[in-house]
Amino acid sequence: MARPRSATSTDVARLAGVSQATVSVVLNGARSTIRVSAETRQRVLAAAAELGYSPHPAAQALRRQRSGIIGFLPRIDRDAPFTHPIHYLLSIHANRAARERGFQFVEAGPETDPWRDSAEDELVRYFLNHRADGVIFDGPKSAGAVQRLLDHGLPVVQIFRPQWSVPTPTVTVDARPGITAAVDHLVTLGHRRIAFVGRAGNHPVDLARLTAFLTALANHGLPATAATVRLSPIYELDQGERLTRELLAQRTRPTAIFAGSDSLALGASRALYAARVHVPDELSLISYDDTFAVQLYPPLTSVAQPFAALAERAVALLIAQIEQLDGPPLPPEQVVLPTQLNLRQSTAPPMRAG
After folding, report:
1. CA distances from 99 to 75, 107, 256 (A)
2. How far is CA 188 from the centre of its chain?
C-alpha cells in the first residue's frame, strides 16, 4: 500500500490562494520584497495547519544561509571522566536543549594535547570551517579565542568561567546560597570546627567559593585559620586526599569538612577511609558540585550547581543571538543562577560538640 504523500509548500499556496513565495515568507521567514498582510498571513497559517504542513528544519536553515549547528567547546583541562564530570553533564543537557529547538549540537575538544597553546585556536577554526551558527564556550582559556569567533560574526555564549574582557552573553553560578546553607546546616548540627578544602588562586569562581565559606563562618562567629583552610592548585582527587590527611594529622581535628568540588570530596573520602574515620559518625563531609556525590557511600550532602538550567539558558541565549543576526544586536545578557544544598547521609551531629 502506497504511503500518503506529505503536503508541500505548493499545496499550501494552492489552498491559501497565494504564491509559493508568499508561503515561504510566512512559514520560513525568507527575506523578500513581498509585503504580506495580516489577513494573508493568517490564511497561509490556516492552510498549513489544515494540510499538516511544517517546513523542514534543514530547508529553513538553507534558506536562511545557516547550518542549524550549535558548537560546544568544553574546557580544555579535562582528562579522566570521573574526575571531570561537569563537561559531560553540560554536554548532555545542552544537546537536549538544542535539539528541542531544532538545532544540531556538535562538541569538539582537544583530547590529544589540551595544554598546547594552539589547541583552542584549532577548535575555533574547526567551528568556523564547519559553519556553526554559534558557539557555547565552557570556561575559555583565552579571551583571544572568544574574540576571533566574534570577529567572524559568530554569536558566542560563555558559561561558568567566562573571559569577562570580551562582552558576550554569559551564564554563571552564584556559590553563596548553597555554601551558606551548607555551613548553616553544619552549625545547626552542632559543628564548630569546620574545615575547607578547595582550590587556590585568584580566579573569581574559586575565590567566590572560599569567600562564601568564610563569610558563612563569620556570620556564626566561628574562626577560620590556616589550619582549617587547605587549598590545592587544582580540583583533583589526589589533592583532596592529601589535604584531608593534613587535616587529620592535626592535634585537634575538624569535626566537619566542606570540599570545594566533588573530586576533592572523593579524595577526602579516601583519606578518611584509610584513617578509619567513619562518615558521618566521626566526621561530617559536604561537597560542592553534586555531580556524582549521590553515588558515593554514604551519599554525600552536596551543594548542587544547576547544570541543566545553566545549559538550557546558554542554548536559549545563543539561539536568540542567532535569530537576531539580521536585526540590531542584542545586549550581552548576564545570567546568574543560584546553587542549592541537597541533604543526604554524610552529615550528622559531632560525637563531641566543639
Report:
1. 22, 13, 43
2. 31
Give the confidence band of 303 by pLDDT, cuts at 50, 70, 90: very high
CA–CA gap between residue 56 and residue 52 (Å, rounded): 12
Write b or e for each residue in 219-250: b if 16 or more Cβ atoms lie within 10 A of its Cβ, otherwise e.
Answer: eeebebeeebbbbbeebbbebbbbbbbebbee
Q: Residue 169 in contact with residue 332, Cβ under 8 Å?
A: yes
Comparing CA positions, the residue from 147, 177, 152 lying closest to residue 164 is: 147
Q: Which three cell numbers stand for residue 264?
A: 576533592
Q: In angstroms, rounded to a whole number, what is the distance separating the alpha carbons of residues 320 and 61?
A: 15
**pLDDT tens digits, 114-144:** 444 455 567 667 776 767 888 898 888 778 8
Structure pTM? 0.76
Q: Cα 315 to the chain's mean position, in Å?
A: 10
